[in-house]
Amino acid sequence: MPVQEKDHSLKNYRVNRSRGLSRINERLGLGFPIVPMIRDLLTKRNSLDVLEVGFGYGHTLLELAWLFRDKKIQFHGVDKRPNVVTRDDLRKIALDFGVVSSSELNALVLPHIYSYDATTLHFEDESFDFIYSAFVVRFIERKDKFLEEVCRVLKPGGTAILHIGGEGWNYPFGQTTDDRRLTNYLNRFVLIHSNELIPLPIYLKLFNGSSFQFEFSDSLHCILNVTKLQKGRLDLELKYNNELSMSGRKLPLRNRRGQIKGGFRSVFEISMQNYDALFERGLLTIDFLKRADQYRTSSTYGNK
Ligand SMILES: C[S@@+](CC[C@H](N)C(=O)[O-])C[C@H]1O[C@@H](n2cnc3c(N)ncnc32)[C@H](O)[C@@H]1O
């Protein structure tokens, strides 16, 4: 589009709610590129429903809507804050971010946007073929409910790519470091059983089965890929710990660059039954605990 058509009022938008497709893709990593994943789904289905959770100003949703304008795809976005309220707002944002020129605006099919907390999604079971979210989950307090809701609204054969947190998140199985901090790792989704830390990827393996498959990318960031194989719901059977859950800034945990990271540290307790099941299925062994002790003393995160 001609340069003069770009609005110069981008300064009115907060940078951390303005990310476009390239930034979101970069964060989700090479393993989960959004556009090829949608194209792949289109080879199997005539029409698609796609949802972004925490869409900010809708920059990425608008880019996707424009890119796939000749396909039967309905784009939807849920965000707790009413950053964007009306369809006119969306049109202005599409122009301001240079997604379309004013002559192209009429050909843009606007995404459907909703303003509410994504821990209760106002959609029927099995509504979406593809769900993605980046730079959002770490702010959600009830991450368990959020994940259960994503699993509920995914269609069989559908996929969700969820950026759960930043680098340095993957604490090993082991004893908690202390009552408050629990772990020196920068994790916002912490599972405990008594005074033991249970890694999220290991716990989720308990729920791999005929309905869902959970897979973490090997990127430094915590990126979870959920595949729904058949109808069903997920019940993570986690108990929210109100006392240990708190704003990330209260801890405070720092990243490698020494910056205090925001977000909400949500802590959940796993039941004795599920703890036992992890050992019975060989997902945890006492050897892990011994190895974890070595990590524990050498962790580089949050030591400042
Ligand atoms: C850091 S911004 C990221 C926005 C966008 N994904 C981006 O990368 O530009 C986090 C967004 O998540 C939204 N958010 C936080 N908690 C949420 C929740 N429980 N349900 C829905 N949206 C939420 C916020 O309102 C905000 O727009």
- CA-atom Rg in angstroms: 20 Å
Structural class: alpha/beta
Largest sheet properties: 7 strands, mixed
Major sheet: order of its strands?
3-2-1-4-5-10-9
What does this structure look like?
This protein is 25% helix and 23% strand. It is of the alpha/beta class and 304 residues long. A hairpin with a 5-residue loop joins strand 9 (212-216) and strand 10. It is globular. It binds S-adenosylmethionine.
Element layout with pairings:
Elements (H helix, E strand, L loop, with lengths): L20 H8 L5 H11 L3 E6 L5 H9 L5 E7 L7 H10 L15 E4 L12 E6 L9 H11 E12 L8 E2 L13 E5 L2 E3 L1 H6 L6 E5 L5 E7 L9 E3 L5 E2 L16 E7 L1 H9 L5 H13 L6
Parallel strand pairs: 1-2, 1-4, 2-3, 4-5, 7-13
Antiparallel strand pairs: 5-10, 6-8, 7-8, 9-10, 11-13, 12-13
The structure holds S-adenosylmethionine (SAM).
